[in-house]
Amino acid sequence: MLLSLIHITVIDIIDILIVAFLLYKLYQLIKGTAAIKIFFGIAIVYLVWLLVKALKMELVESIMGQVIGVGVIALIVVFQQEVRQFLLILGDKYFKRGFFVGKVKLRNDFSLEGVESIVQACMEMSETKTGALIVITRETSLQTIIQTGETVNADINTQLIKAIFYKNAPLHDGAMIIEKNRIVAAKCILPVSQNPNLPNEYGLRHRSGLGISETSDALVIIVSEQSGNISIAQNGQIHKASGRDYLKKAILAYLRQKSDSKKEHKAEKEANKAVEDSKI
Asked: What is the reported pTM?
């Protein structure tokens, strides 16, 4: 009897799947942050509103309806970083990579030699415990960040990277921005992440690297001055790089637009899997 009153169409199923997908992606972006508590609070308020509607409590329903209506704007303000990151991931994964990008090896004119120079510099600075903060751009413009630092505009070079981050060098404090296979600026100021779940070992350098990864699609490499450990921040997540090969594969996977061989595609999948397994 009850089942005969329930009419579910294919469109209803598609509707449910789309909503579930969007909620899952939103949860992935905000888990481990203070925003997750706000998300669950809003979900509880919404469920109470649905219950009030079902019970036909018109006065309470009217008040809560107004609150929820205004709350949509508040949500955009509260979750602005998460919404921005979600749109970046969506556009990068399902638009640029999937449909309208031709077969090229690396993005933005990056060369394998440039990647190798970055990796070599990071490994040598790791050995000497030289603190470093390197931001590699992809699609999001970081012009406002670049303007906070000093213009370099030089080819990527291992010795130059090490010289900039040398402890007594005038440009060592701050971030280096690498764009289109060139070091465009150094001593740049990055936004600091407010993620409360970061380990105590992560200081201001790590929080700054994570902060710019939360608001852009940049890949950030952090070399710890205390331990010499190398970390990678991307898409609002930070993890340790477990060696030279790992670091190189992670950078190549980030810069590669579309594989032109099965071997490259396999290497990219392995790098991405390693990144996912190491996320905190």
From this structure: 0.61
